[in-house]
Amino acid sequence: MNKPNIIFIMADNLGWGELGCYGGGSLLGAPTPRIDGLAKQGLRLLNYNVESDCIPTRSALMSGRHPIRTGCLQSVPAGFPHGLTRWEITLPQLLSSEGYATALFGKWHLGDIPGRFPSDRGFDEWYGVPRTTDESEFTTTRGFDPDVVDTPYLMEGIAGQPSVNVKAYDSEARRLIDEEIVGKSIEFLIRNSRAGQPFFLYLPMIHLHFPTLPHKNFSGRSAAGDFGDSMMEMDYRVGQIIDCVDELGIANDTILIFCSDNGPEFREPWRGTAGPWSGTYHTAMEGSLRVPFIIRWPDKIDAGRVSNEIVHVTDLFTTLAGIAGASVPTDRPIDGVNQTEFFKGADKSSREGFCFFLKNEMYAVKWRDWKYHMFWQPEVNDMRGKLESPYLFNLKRDPKEQVNVSIHNMWVLGPIRKMIEAMQASFQKHPNIPPGQVD
């Protein structure tokens, strides 16, 4: 069988409740017809789960490992060691070994020093943001001193060559970046499709991360200000990729994924929504864990299917590697499980739950319809501390996580305790890489 192409589009800080197909869209003043249409063509997950922050989620996708293992615990300023060490084996490295052309256009955030740029870590080519999008505000912030903090740059690189600065990443560049990276993505798709080359396109978009600033062509298009305008631009950009794939006639040979890396933005004036779930990213609430996920693979994945089965971001590493014929590493714990059969129509996911960490602490555990909180932080910067008697919620009956039912459901602690102990035992056998570890 020919190896399928893989396109992985990941929005930045798109909440569960913001797209039309997840209950938002026109209701919020920002229709999303292209992504809603994509959902009708494939599988839409209601229980796709990510990590707490940009770096943790991206590291989990690229390595198949929880960030507590890799030391990728949080965003840090430029110039400080961060991201994946070179010991980690990345998804594009596995796909490259199977003959895939690989490219990243967008936000990397997993290393900004030679040896850790995307073109050093399995991507043939890349263009975009090496760190975080909020740096685009630096140069227009009162008191910014370029002698103390380097001016942020958009960068590009080719495998085997040094990555280089292209232009300053400022507020104007922020408005244009998604147009640029989609344009480069389309050129990559056309080039490799015409060459008959299987490809992996990783398109981590910049919307809707703050500052959430739309392209001028979308300014005023929504009924929800800059944030809604940016939502509509994001939908349009995803539509451009869909149209390119369809016009090239490669849809049946292409796995197309659209998802988010984190729960919704919470910073004023850019605030998103997680719909029925409480909380935003940087918490262990369902509004942080659950985000949109849509996968289209015609003739392999049924159109219009919806599932509430649990899938975790680490599973994409294992699943996509398996579909491509690559073997995942066996010399380290890989947390992702292969979800190919589930995606293709099996009723049940290959996982029942997972442990969730914020930085170095295990904050919560999900198992089936249950959520077990050991720390309580319902909102960002509203830390109530470690719980002497952990909370337990049933997420189907109580999606807002408001009614602690632990005293009536002590049996649930059995399987949850097994998950916790298995994770802790693996830490003993395979010590975690500390944050800031040098190569």
Automatic annotation (TrEMBL):
Cofactor dependence: Ca(2+)
GO molecular function terms attached to this record: arylsulfatase activity; metal ion binding
Classification via Gene3D superfamilies: 3.30.1120.10, Alkaline Phosphatase, subunit A
Domain Sulfatase N-terminal: 4-325
InterPro entries for the chain: Alkaline_phosphatase_core_sf, Sulfatase, Sulfatase_N
Keywords: Calcium, Hydrolase, Metal-binding, Signal
Membrane-crossing segments per the record: none
Keyword Hydrolase tagged: yes
One protein family per Pfam: Sulfatase_C
Sequence similarity: Belongs to the sulfatase family.
Protein name as catalogued: Arylsulfatase
Organism: Candidimonas nitroreducens
